Amino acid sequence: MPLLELTLGNPANGGGCVARDGSGRVVFVRHGLPGERVLARLTEEHPKWARADAVEILEPSPDRVTPPCVFSGPGNCGGCDYQHVSLEAQRELKRQLLKEQLRRVGKFDLDVTVESISDDNAGLGTRTRLRFGISDSGTFAMRRHRSHELIEITTCLLGNDAIKNVMQEHEYFEGNDDLLIIALNGNDVALTRRVHFVTENDALDDPFDDQIDDDDDVEEMEETQHTSVDGVDFDVSPTTFWQSHIEAPSLLVERVLAALSLSPGDRVLDLYCGAGLFTKFIAHAVGPEGFVLGIEGSTTATRDAEENLTAFPWAVIQESSVSTSVLARASEGFTHAVLDPPRSGVDAGALRTLSAMNTLTTIVSVSCDPATFARDLRILVNEGWEISTLRAFDLFPMTEHIECLAVLLRDGE
Length: 413
Prior knowledge:
The chain is of the alpha/beta class and about 425 residues long.
C-alpha cells in the first residue's frame, strides 16, 4: 500500500493527530505530532475517514523525543500513545483534548492546565497494575493498537519495580490466558509474585485497561492485596477498581477532601465508592455525628469497602447501581456528594435526582474520561449548579488519558 504524505494538525482522541489526504478525507494519524510532515501508512479505511501510522518523519516537531521503550512505535505495542513526545508536550496535548471535549460535548468555553504529579521518573515506573496477553510461545505480550494480534515484550517501562521484577523472574506461561499483575505497594518486592491469571482473551481497545469484572473467570488469584494511603490501610481485591498510578490514591484523596471542605456532622454520598478509598477518609472527617453512604455496583468492591470501613459504623456501603430510583430512596439531609464513575459516566436521571436534593451544597466529580465528564457537568450546570473549580492531573503518562476533577456549588451560593 503506498504511503501518504501528510501534514498533521490538532491532537485527536485515540492518541493521534488529525490530517487530511489529497481528497480531503480525514485521516487520524498515530505516532505523530501537530505540525509535523510525515509519511503515513493506512491501517484502516472508510469512505469518509481513515486511520494511519506515521512511519517516517519528514519534518519533526521540536517536542519529539526518542521513545524510551523499544516496543513502542508503528506496528508494535498499542499501549502508549505518546512515547515519542516530551512530557511537557504530552500535557499540552492533553490540555487541548480536554478543552475540545469541554467545548464540543459540554458547551463550555474553559481551559484547564493538566498538572504533573511527579517529576522524578520521566513518566515511567508509575503503574501498579498491568494486564498482558500471553503469546503462543508462552511469553509476555501486548496487543497492537485496535487488534487481537500479540506483540511479544520482555518488559514494560510503565510498570513499577515490583511488576518489572515479576517479568524478569517469569519467562514462560502455559496457555493463552491474559495475565494481570498487581503490586499496589509499588516497590515492595514482597509483592512481586502476586501474579493473577484471567481467562478472558478478548482484544482490548486500550492494552493498559487493567480492570477486570466480577464475572470474569479468574483463576489462581489471591483474595486481596494490602496497601496504605497516607497511613490508612486498605484491602483491595484484584477485580476491584483501584487507581493504577502509584501516587494517584494519595493525590486524589487530598484533592477531594480539600474540595469537600467537610465538618463534623456532615452527611456525604460517595457514589461509585469502589473499595472505599474516599469513603474511609470522609468517614473520619465527618465523625460519628456525621454519616456516609457509599454506593457501589460491584459485589467484590462492596465487600472490600465494608471490610475497610468496619471501624466506622456511621459509614454504610450499599451494593447497587447509581440510578434515579436508588438515589430517590436515599435518606434526606445529604450535604455533600462525590462522583467517581467509570468511563461511561453517570446516568442523566441519577444526576437530576441528585441535584434535586435541596440540602446538598457541594458536588465533587472525578473522572478519567473527558467526554462523559463534560457531558455530566453540563447536566449539573443546567440543573442550577456552578463550576467552582476545574482541575486535571497527568495520572497516565505516555498515554492520552487524564484524570479530571470538578467542584460544583449551588448557583448563587
